[in-house]
Amino acid sequence: MLTDINPKLPMRNKKVTREFYLNRLGFNQYGNVDFDGYLMIEKDQIQIHFFEFKELNPKENYGQVYIRTDNIDEFYKSLLEKQTEIHPNGKLEIKPWGQKEFAVLDPDNNLLTFGQNI
Q: Which of 21, 58, 63, 108 would be a feasible disulfide site paired with 9, CB 3.0-4.6 Å?
């Protein structure tokens, strides 16, 4: 019966988070209502929600999302073209578990790992 999942991650500053996801990762804002302290973004079939947490210490944030893709090489290239910083330990590579992956940290230190089955 489950049909979808929309992770909720913390953000300190809605404007900064929105700018990063829209301009660096190519997401769009979801919906036409601007909720105070809440943000919803989407790209293709992926939707992520954010809740305001002004006191968040990014060094103590362990928010993580694993996002599957069917064209990781093209997506990775598009991020490099936008000069999006790739996680220093998360460069695009094939992992022992059969996934081609890379990772990005958002402005609040939420880890986004993108993966494709090879």
A: 63
Contact call for residues 110 and 61 (beta carbons, < 8 A): yes
At 59-103, the pLDDT tens digits run 999 999 999 999 999 999 999 999 999 999 999 999 999 999 999
- Say if domain 8-54+62-117 classifies as CATH 3.10.180.10: yes
Q: Indicate the pairing of strand 64-68 with strand 93-94.
A: unpaired
Q: Report which of 94, 91, 93 is spatially closest to residue 103, judged by C-alpha positions.
A: 91
| Side-chain half-sphere exposure of 76, counting CA atoms within 13 A | 20
16 membership: H or E segment, kind and range: helix 14-19
Strand partners, 43: 46
pTM of the model: 0.93
The sign of the CA dihedral 73, 66, 27, 55 is negative
